[in-house]
Target: Cystatin fetuin-B-type domain-containing protein
Amino acid sequence: MSAFLRLACMCALACVRGAPAVSDAPDPCVDAVGAAEKALTKINQDRQQGYIFSLHHLSNYNQAPHPKGSAGVIYFLVMDVLETKCHVLSREDWQSCEVRQTHETPVYGQCKAFVSISQEQKDVRLYSYRCRMRPAPASKIGRLCPDCPSRIDMDSEEVLKAAKLSLEKYNMESGQPNYFALLNITRASAQGGFGMFYFAEFTIQETVCANSTDISQAPNCTLMDCEFAHKGLCKGSHSVARGREYITVSCKIFEPEAAEKEKERHLLGGEHGHGHNHSHTPPAPPKRPLGTVVYLPARQQQASLPPLPDSPPPFPSFTEEGLEEPPVTLLPLRFPPKECSVAHSHSTFIQELFDEDLDFNQHILN
Model:
């Protein structure tokens, strides 16, 4: 073949590769993964307690045209997820949140969601979801990191003491105008060494009392019950070692959504020439969650995995969830090929947690 002919062939091949695909068929991997990412965002926005979930892997999925035709596509998604360090009160994007590492006792699980997405990929509606989560086994972490902190009961006396003392320290040093009170303890761990160290993560909320309130009167302070009340997430620790007491604390206060909206209105309307002496209205009653999150105990024993079924299981029924629209009949679930993988954590330890857990390997709704 002459050099000219070879060059002509190369140019033709380049043109073919560079030309847009003539098929209008969407890439099922791109669509399914995109649906999972959007669904998880909606799930995190719907939740009022706990930590934001991050998408680890799209386990399997199903899709069908929406009964209304032009409305788009309905998906049933089975998503392997990981707990992040961001609390849902922060309203942060899950893709910007850090998942917990091995020494921090990762929490892993699975969310199964029913969602519709418009053809323009803009309107996303979450119908229902169920998530089940559990912490990594302490024995598995201990083999890799014997000196790392271990999870303990959040109701233990030492954990409550650590939260109380660290919150007192925060109120004394924060410079906040109002006193903050404890809402919920969200994580607890302990670590030995030259003394016992107790660690607590907990949420707090602004009260009606000034920060100068005598600490003996603090238990009488009521929570600020309005849409402008601030909440936050704190990490504190308490220990007594070599005859000395150590207390640490760091808190992140979240700006309430109502305050952000008020700020936007003022920026759009310019200076209004008035002070902020208006009365704060009570917050709207909390909306009914669209789904549930259940926390299971850590798995104690490693089990052998059953073989994968020869055919995918049938699509589950959501009739008991009380959906506003009737469920549709869909094809069997699909097992995404490896190129559909969206694992945001490439840790071998994390993948082993999912691979060894029968509860998250059956690919059915239970």
In short: Strands lie at 51-65, 73-87, 107-117, 124-135, 150-151, 178-191, 196-210, 231-241, 244-254, 291-295.
